[in-house]
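Please check this protein record:
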Amino acid sequence: MTIPLLVSQMMCHNCATLLHLKDFYGEERRYGLASEIPLRCAGCLGVTYVYTSNDSTTKNFEKDRRSRVFDANSKLAMGI
């Protein structure tokens, strides 16, 4: 997990309210070493997803969630 990446995502996509990890909502989705964390906004009650790793998303991501490639998993596979 990279702290600067996490901090840069801690704002609601709907109303720009700052999010807090205590507003965890639903279930964390694990993608190998990376995670997708749902946070519920206290202002508009919308859900914003925060990621613990950068990703190299392919063009087909919207059609197939399995095409998402996270940097943490790639680095592990390459031994970096």
User: Anything to note?
Assistant: The chain has a mean pLDDT of 81. Residues 46 and 68 are 23 Å apart (CA to CA). The chain has one domain: 3-78. The helical segments are 3-8, 71-78.
